[in-house]
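FAQ
Q: What does a multi-component entry look like?
A: The components come first, one per line:
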Amino acid sequence: MTKTAAVTLASPDVAPPPTERTTTPCPEENELVAFVEARVDAEGRHAIEVHLDQCDACRELLASFAQAHGGAPAADVRPDAAETSVVGRYQLGAEIGRGGMGIVYRAHDPVLDRAVAIKAITSIDPRSRVADSSEYDRLLREARAMARVAHPNVVPVFDAVVEHGSVYLVMELVDGPSLRAHLASTPALSIDDKVALFRAAAAGLAAAHTANVVHRDFKPENVLVGRGGARVTDFGLARPPSKVAAGEGPSSADARWLSTDATRGLAGTPAYLSPEQIDGAGVDARSDQFSFAVALFEALHGTHPFGLGTRGGPTTVSELRAAMNRGPLQGRGAGAVPRWIDDVVRRALSPRPSDRWADMQALARALAQATDGRARSSTRHTAPLAPAPRTPWHPAAHPNAMMRPHLPPRTSSSLGWVIGILVFIAAAGTCTAVGLAAATGPSTSVMVETQIPEETTKQLVAHGVLAKNERPVAFYDESSEHDASSGFVVTSERVSSFSKAKTSSVRLADVVEIKHQSAALGDVIEVSSVKGDRLRMELPLADDAVALVDALEREVKKKKPNVIVRRDAPP
Amino acid sequence: MPEVPEAADASIDGFIAGLGPRGRDLARDTVRAALNGVAATVAADLPALGAPGPSFYDHLGRHLAPAEVEPLTALAEARVSDLYLAASCLEGNEQALTTFRTRYAADITRSLAQVRIASMDADDVMQELLRRLVSGPNPKLASYSGRGDLRTWVRLVTTRALLDIARVKRNAERPTDDSAFDAVAAPNASPELAHFRNRYQREIALATERAARSLSPEERNALREHYALGLTVDQIAAAHGIHRATAARRVQRAREELVHRIKRVLDEDFGLKDRDLASVLELVRSQMHITMERVLAVSGP
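Then the predicted structure of the entire assembly, as tokens:
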């Protein structure tokens, strides 16, 4: 022990002896901890840099510290605007926002001479400070997926730049506040106005879901309200929940103390996470639906649906999770928010994803019906609204030709609409067979084929809907009688909608478009081939395909005993 | 997760008392909820230590009293588990001391491996460092503020202590030779460059020194760390709490700026033109490590 007698540890008020050139006292350890953990403001940072410039001992200390330990374990550092003034071809301007995933800058694109927004994404795990290549890959995949989503309610991604170990997303610059700020600054907004903003956001989310992009972090901060209305941004940037859970450890995540600081609102808390995200379970489009509904509930009622931030509300993540299972609270605005709107939101807040709306489109449609008052009389005292899908083939321009198969409320999402399609086909009365080919194994789709009987074709020709040499590949009439008064027909060349008064045509190419623009069944149906009198549609399945087809078969047999269900091996 | 009992009135009293005048306007229910959160965090992070008593909450209140932000905001940002562990160690709690050793022994070992001290046994140094941290008349751990990660703090404190020892020993054993770099032969320099080096040695040295003096402290620090101390971009980022992209740019810009300013001094002050100027600059660039040794010697304007 005598050898170590020289060991001295500076006490807080006795800093190590300064070297000759030093003019400022050496920073005390807590200050240096704050410096390396990036918790010091610009002025403080500069003061420490000035000291380091003059003090060999402190410079050696930080160098040895970094060489021995590679940095602070919890430091959360981000690219600095002042030092990264050019990204790719873009000139960075002022910082305009800072979020969980990085900093957003105003920037200028000198080639196209326009203002853009650039988001510098902190893609490096701040704990390890090691660039995770799979994380880059994921961010780039998301950026590519986002670039494919073209929708008026989604902030478009123009470009992505990978530089200096960071990913920069170049997006349209939206001049407007976040939805949170907008709601806060216009407290007089009516229920209808609020719902309209959220419906716009729902349309944006739905478009992304169609492109297989899940947002994962929907919250009012990620919706921008500009001249173009409400637009969703920051898709898919949040780290997958399993990684978050793994990094924090189950015990600390469970007991993580929910910040309900009044100045920050519920930002930076798991306030908008779905139960499956908290559980670290699989996340899909229905998780976004839950987050969306939390935000909508909050906007309508002025309180969090599970009491976060209120007296007696949950203070830990595990308590919040338990509250989710008990279901949303009555809500402060219970009197002011119409029941039929509330019902729509509450269904989306179901703890089990399968109990929620089939998809964002179904939710948006239900909201539209609720606010338009169409559903008021029928749903006032009944179960939550069932989605009212439109037919798959009908162009939006002809709403009078719509058929509304009524689905049982709260069916399993994918089961719900697949049955809907079968009911539609059966109700058309012209199909003699519905072929179901169960896709097994890794595939996630079933094939539905329709066949139009000769008799129907003759009648369509007699009505002048089809030319003599034309063969229909799909057909339905609204009345489900053979003497069709209005409906439409698909041939291999075109889609015709018709009514007693007039006949109009849409080219076949438009059918393919329907799957993008329709807000109903059509949007999930791929017209994968039109051959002869057979139209083949591919229906994506969320759940186990075989089990679903079994259920379908039972359901169809029960409801339409005259419909033949044929199960084939996939072609 | 173990069941966490509701915060006792004595704990709330202790916390409010510890805060002093800043605790007066706090609602008891709000404080109770906050302390329940503290208890839950501590129970999850330090299950073996048992629930904190009123004395810890008083200690916590004292810690938060000088904060610039609202006490409960400061509480939300504080490392309560780290503070509890530190406080328990200082009270001599055996379980806490064991936890501290288990958690941070690897960090102290890494500090020791980095700052090697000749003629001293590593185990002895380790024991002495631990002893000085948690016991004695002036235990270092008492100065931990609870605002940063205790692990970062332990890493910095032990590294500093070891460097102090090493410095004392080094100064006693061998004097540093500041002029050593002048004798370094330029590696791989062509005969032509060697000629320029000999001819303009004085000008290069002066220009480099002037240029280095005109850089910002941040730039000089980054250059020294990268070229003289051999830190990687990631290590520079870690030492300064900046993003590695920022660190990389800082080093790159500082180097460009340095060469640019050397060029200006050579041009304007020493009248070097055309081919001579280009050749000397090439020399400066190709021997950046030697150039940087001069930068290292400069501090501040």
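Q: Is there any commentary attached?
A: Sometimes. For this entry: DSSP finds 18 helices and 17 strands in chain A.
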